Amino acid sequence: MKKVVKFGGSSLASAEQFQKVGNIIKSDKERRYVVPSAPGKRHGKDTKVTDMLYACYALAEEEKKFDKELAEIKARYDEIITGLGLKLDLSEEFAKINENFRAKAGADYAASRGEYLNGIVMANYLGFEFIDAATAIFFDENGDFDADKTNKILRKRLEGSECAVVPGFYGAYADGKVKTFSRGGSDVTGSIVAKAVQADVYENWTDVSGFLVADPRIIKAPEVIDTITYRELRELSYMGATVLHEDAIFPVRQEGIPINIRNTNAPEDRGTWIVGSTCQKSKFTITGIAGKKGFCAVNIEKDMMNSEVGFGRKVLQAFEDYGISFEHVPSGIDTMTVFVHQDEFMDKEQKVVAGIHRLANPDSIDIEADLALLAVVGRGMRSTRGTAGRIFSALAHANVNVKMIDQGSSELNIIIGVSNDDFESAVKAIYDIFVISQL
Questions:
Q1: Dihedral angle over CA of 417, 418, 424, 429, nearest 10
Q2: Cα dihedral sign, 203-205-209-211
Q3: Between vectors from CA 436 to CA 432 and to CA 439, what angle results, nearest 5°?
Q4: Cβ atoms within 10 Å, residue 266
Q5: Hey, which of 184, 222, 261, 338 would disulfide with 272, CB 3.0 to 4.6 Å?
Q6: Looking at residue 42, what is its pLDDT?
Q7: What is the mean pLDDT of residues 425-436?
């Protein structure tokens, strides 16, 4: 049995945290492949190493002195190395980073050094082989992840390695130039490694004991989700739940590898299992609630639009022409509403409106701003009658006005639109009716 374990920045922020991670890995001989993030915050007022690297490289690009800032980053690693009692000197690595910063190697190269250096420390601490992700994870000339090439080369590299550390967050183009995933991309690396070694489990260790039913910034001590499917997780991640990078699902989903979200600071907790499918019933009718603020609704009205072939395509063409993607498009017989991100739409709104008039000739267009979207997700909703009715009732009782409700045919999720000001109240009301009332 093989396990891939990924540890987030908070799990590796200090020597003390490193020791916790080391104990977790050494407690199970099946934890053979490790994917570390860069050191995170040691305390509330601290700065993540990745952010320190970005700031340091910005000075280099402006051709300003950055020796002091780079020395501060080195001090973070030296503190960890000393705390672990390792005989490891990163001076040569930092000299190389200094040289490449001066040569303007790129912001992606700069950001990746956090994981790269932490990978060296982790491999030294565990006695594992170190594999630079830039030699085994690849992007094509367009900057898109090259899954086939990566899987072929990484699998071959890891077949000859009993235990290895592969730093997260980055890979490289064919010419060796470093390219990073988006922030949180170490989750993706862990998933890629799990696929390459055909792991039995991908453990993702962080600072919470699993995936929570709702945002703990809104709900005090929300319940932990025991088991969640990839599809449910995809819906919740897209709508703002941030325990796992949403793109981390795909490589392991293709192989049927389960993900186990665990807490480095409470390793005895079971955490959350993310699986392809399951016969296990959800503890509650819903699996989770997530949402985002900052949307606007473009309401288009035209008599008999339902009988006009191509009307919807023409409306959406106006958004596409100006590079704006839509979130949801609920419609009626004579009405169609397009929900878009407000910050993307504001500067182009009149151009888009003019485009809709030109292409679709509507009777009227009305724009409503400052809206939030919530996703209520759960496989249990399929077999439970009256879920939408309970949501409406709970929101009405909380004096929340529903702007939109949209349920997919899969009955896996219900999307609700409310004003930004009602967002927190809506989350609390839905959590109370589906979770608190069932405890």
A1: -80
A2: negative
A3: 160
A4: 12
A5: 261
A6: 94
A7: 95
**Placement of tokens 């839509």 in the chain:** 326
Give the HSE-up count for residue 431: Cα atoms under 13 Å, Cβ half-sphere: 23
Torsion of CA 305, 311, 314, 315, to 10 degrees: 40
At 65-102, the pLDDT tens digits run: 999 999 999 999 999 999 999 999 999 999 999 999 99
**Distance from the Cα of residue 289 to its chain's centroid:** 16
Cβ contacts of 402 within 8 Å, gap of 6 or more: 392, 395, 416, 417, 418
Place of tokens 């499918």: 277
| Spatial distance between the Cα atoms of 31 and 219, rounded to a whole number of angstroms | 34
Q: What is the 3-state secondary structure (H, E, C) of 296-339?
A: EEEEEECCCHHHCCCHHHHHHHHHHHCCCCEEECCECCCEEEEE
**CA–CA dist 248, 255 (Å, integer):** 13
Enter the tokens of residue 236. Answer: 């919740």
pTM for the predicted model, two decimal places: 0.84
Distance of CA 268 to CAs 95, 213, 271, Å?
41, 20, 9
